[in-house]
Amino acid sequence: MSLNFFDSLQNFETPFPHAVSPKALNPDDAEKILHWFETSAPWKLVEESFYEQYEFSLKDVTAPFDIAPLLSKESLQHLTLLVEKWFCASLSDKVDVTAHKLVPGQTIRIHNDFIPGQETHRVLIQFNRGWKDENGGMLMLFGSMNPTDIKKVYRPAHNSGVAFEISKKSLHAVSTIHDGERFTLVFSFFEK
């Protein structure tokens, strides 16, 4: 498993600090993760006020041997250093890693993930089989809670990544899935 996270990163300040990359991991590693997610990952349905999705925490499971290095202490430290650099932040050693799966009919409504004293930065890596616009599942960034105030839209292309700073302004949502399965690996970081 490669420790090389994120090639060709672009940083943006609008509508809130975030960064995107068309290639988050080595392609072979991304394929291994997608295969696990599609075949034997322990998905559980979670329903909350603003979303319904399948998910699990990677600290609660034993990842397959060929994926485990991605979750090693060294890999998470490397990614933490990158996030610190991208956002000029000072982060603790704590990193939560979860996996999410959205299927047709599921959506995530506008929210900001901001909880005082909780995570301050997040990295998302997308996995799927040839996502098309008509599949839905777009990551949308907003300037306000108004659903028409969309500032940026990102297709969940396979092995792409998005990182963002969590604050009251980090309003985002995922449009309804119409076809296919949209998998996301979510890394959450905490300020010191």
UniProtKB/TrEMBL annotation:
Residues 103-185 form the Prolyl 3,4-dihydroxylase TPA1/OFD1 N-terminal domain. It comes from the Bacteria. This is 2OG-Fe(II) oxygenase.
